[in-house]
Amino acid sequence: MPDKCLLHCGIHTISEQNIDNLKIRILNFAKELRSKNPDLNLTVTIPLSYNPQSIDTNSRFATTFIDAIKMVFNENRDYRFNIATNDAHFFLERGIETIQFGCGGIENNVHAADEFIEVDQLLNTTKTYAIAAMNYLK
Predict the structure, then answer these.
(1) Which has the least CB within 10 A, 13, 25, 34, 72?
(2) Whole-model pTM?
(3) Number of domains in the chain
(4) What pLDDT does residue 54 have?
């Protein structure tokens, strides 16, 4: 039996959740575990946390980006929001509207050992960013 175990968790929050309340729930859960097993050497650290973020999908920035996607891919796409794996939250916390948009999708074995991107997917993503920037900044 190992003498040490490290458990790293990520909680993807939504706008309705409160970070401070989540932290309290986690700490209370650990306290309850310790009270049930006094020999349990449990340490909880929360090295990074940030408030849930969202973007106004009707803002000029968002609609400019959606129009660029429509122009390049000839389709309407829904917003999906996940800031846990990138630096978008740093911008959003400072009031800078941010949209993450990447190449490919599930068919590209995302986050797998054999993940790949087709060249045309990379080019179309680059075109989307260029068109959005040009139209937003003009």
Answers:
(1) 25
(2) 0.65
(3) 2
(4) 74
Rounded Cα distance between 59 and 61, Å, is 5
Q: How many other C-beta atoms are found inside a 10 Å radius of the C-beta of residue 64?
A: 19
Co-location of 76 and 110 in the same domain:
yes
Task: Find the domain containing 96 and state its range.
Answer: 60-137
Q: Of the ranges 11-15, 56-60, 87-91, which one carries the lowest mean pLDDT score? A: 11-15
Residues 45 and 84 in one domain: no
**Nearest CA to 109 among 97, 127, 121?**
121
